[in-house]
Amino acid sequence: MALAEHLREFRNRLIISAIATVIGMIAGFFLYQPFMQYLNAPIEQLNQQTDREAILNFGGVGGPFSVMVEVSIILGLILASPVWLYQLWAFITPALHKKEKGYAYGFVIAAVPLFLGGCALGVLTLPSAVFALTAFNPDNTANVIDANQYVRFVLQLVLALGLACVLPVLLVGLNMIGILPGRSLLKAWRWVIILVLLLAAIVAPGPDLMVMFYISAPLMALFFLAVGICLLNDRRRAKKLAKQQTAYDSSSIKATSDDELRTIQADTKD
């Protein structure tokens, strides 16, 4: 397609994604109260199980409204993830062959549950993260937790784990269309482990190693699963290319033999 047609299609895909996100934001607005109750539950549990005192504080008159808008936007992005992930790959698929389009659809089918699963993992690890972060509080002191910072921390935790779980599927998708070899991924496994552990330490800092394990173990498992799939696909592609090359060489030899036979027959007639 021409550049103008590409831009027009990108605009249409973006509009569809925006509409889905707005609908998700409306649903997120109605989910705001139960979502905030869940976020406040670890703080109440902290007060009950320890001698510390923690309270969620909304600074300023417009603080609750700004938090509600931010939560609604992020929940809208999460709820609309099946739509915008599909639109992302639907924009790429016109440039792919028929078989590669099947890979793209497979990416969407795999990416959506993994993204939602990563978000769920972030939500489930929230209580442990709250306990770990407030463990450094001195005795006989209180935690007045700013609601904006707390909600932003939770949303970053949820989105970071959601996107991290989608990344291995993206690597497999790039391998399927021949951009990223599996051996290149395998060579980078040490750096990946370091980055995953670093991400786990940033997302859930503190002395509780089990929280880091809950976060890092699924991400590492997904990465090495993606590497295995990419290596198998590279082997399959190499066998296919070798078979095609053999067939091409055989046809070339046959064509050369036919030409030589015709030349001999022409010389015999002369």
TrEMBL record:
Location in the cell: Cell membrane; Membrane
GO BP annotations listed: intracellular protein transmembrane transport; protein transport by the Tat complex
Bilayer topology term: Multi-pass membrane protein
Comp. bias intervals (Basic and acidic residues): 256-270
One GO molecular-function entry: proton motive force dependent protein transmembrane transporter activity
Transmembrane domains' residue ranges: 12-32, 71-92, 104-133, 153-176, 188-205, 211-232
Pfam families membership: TatC (PF00902)
CC terms in the record's Gene Ontology section: TAT protein transport complex
Keyword flag Transmembrane helix: yes
InterPro entries assigned to the protein according to its UniProt record, in alphabetical order: TatC
This protein's record includes keyword Membrane: yes
Region Disordered, residue ranges: 249-270
Swiss-Prot/TrEMBL keywords: Cell membrane, Membrane, Protein transport, Translocation, Transmembrane, Transmembrane helix, Transport
Function, as annotated: Part of the twin-arginine translocation (Tat) system that transports large folded proteins containing a characteristic twin-arginine motif in their signal peptide across membranes. Together with TatB, TatC is part of a receptor directly interacting with Tat signal peptides.
Similarity field: Belongs to the TatC family.
NCBIfam families: tatC
Subunit description: The Tat system comprises two distinct complexes: a TatABC complex, containing multiple copies of TatA, TatB and TatC subunits, and a separate TatA complex, containing only TatA subunits. Substrates initially bind to the TatABC complex, which probably triggers association of the separate TatA complex to form the active translocon.
Name this polypeptide is given: Sec-independent protein translocase protein TatC
Organism in which the protein naturally occurs: Kocuria coralli
Lineage of origin: Bacteria, Bacillati, Actinomycetota, Actinomycetes, Micrococcales
Designated gene of the protein: tatC
